[in-house]
Amino acid sequence: MRLGDNCVICNKRKEEGLHIANSFICFTCENKIVELDENDLMYHTLVKQMRNLSSNFIRK
Ligand SMILES: [Zn+2]
C-alpha cells in the first residue's frame, strides 16, 4: 500500500481515503459528498465525477 495519494476532487495529497479504480478520493471529500444536498450544484459535479470513475472501474 502506498502512503497517501492525490485526491481527484481537491487535488491534495492525503493519507486517508477511498481508492476507486486508479483514482483516489480523500476522506474529507468523501464526507463532503455524503453531507451534500441533492439540490446542491457541487453534488452533481461530484456525482458526475464518481460516474466517470465507476465507468473506468467497469472497463477494468
Ligand atoms: Zn479530497
How would you characterize the overall build of this protein?
Pfam families: Gin. This is Sigma factor G inhibitor Gin. InterPro entries: Sigma-G_inhibitor_Gin (IPR019700). The protein is an alpha+beta fold. The chain has one domain. Helices cover 47% and strands 20% of the residues. It has helices spanning 27-35, 41-59, and strands at 5-6, 13-14, 17-20, 23-26. The strands form two sheets. It has a two-stranded antiparallel sheet with strand order 1-2. A two-stranded antiparallel ribbon has the order 3-4. It is globular, with a radius of gyration of 12 Å. The mean pLDDT is 80. It binds zinc ion (ZN).
Judged by helices, strands and strand pairing, the structural class is: alpha+beta
**Biggest sheet statistics:** 2 strands, antiparallel
What amount of the residues lies in strands? 15-25%
Number of domains: 1
Helix proportion of residues, in percent?
40-55%
* Average residue-wise pLDDT: 80
Strand segment tally: 4
Tell me, briefly, the overall form: globular
Stretches where pLDDT falls below 50 for ≥5 residues? none
Strand arrangement in the largest pleated sheet: 1-2
Oligomer: single chain
Task: Name the hetero compounds present.
Answer: zinc ion
H/I helix tally: 2
Helices and strands, in N-to-C order? EEEEHH
CA gyration radius, whole angstroms = 12 Å
**Cα separation of the termini:** 20 Å
Question: Short summary of the structure?
Answer:
With 60 residues, the protein is α+β, with helices and mostly antiparallel strands. Helices cover 47% and strands 20% of the residues.
